[in-house]
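Model it.
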Amino acid sequence: MVDVAPVVATTPSPADAATGAVGDGSDGGELVVLVKWNKTTYPVELPRSSPLSALTNLLWELTEVRPERQKLLGLTRTPGGSGPDVPLAAVITKPEQKVMMMGSREADIAAINTKAAAVAAANEVQDDFDIDYGAFGAAAPAGSAGTGVDGQPYRGMRIHNVASVEEKLR
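Modeled.
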């Protein structure tokens, strides 16, 4: 047998939660939700009849996280439906219910994207197709470790046998 805790007057019954009605017959009163985001807890107080979108819009004002980027963990699932129009009384069933919010600010996302673009621009691949590797092959004089046939220094790796390299490339 499952033990059932007594229902507190401010907590809606499951039937009331599905319809958004208040179990104690009052006009609704206020719901207090403790929303934790980035190591900060925000106590939010809204009327019971408010839609869920009112909570997400208020959190947008407090945290600068847009509603479409917010993920609210700890809300009660309702059998009647979901979405931004669900009344808070249907998804908040405990007094001072704790909810965790996940989401990023637009400014933080823009900063990360800007930094990633700068890193990508700095990591360009060097074009080495303009190097004449034929000048450094077997025709290079012995002892000329860093120079080509014309005595000019070359960059890149020394190719000892150009014919074998070309064969491997084929």
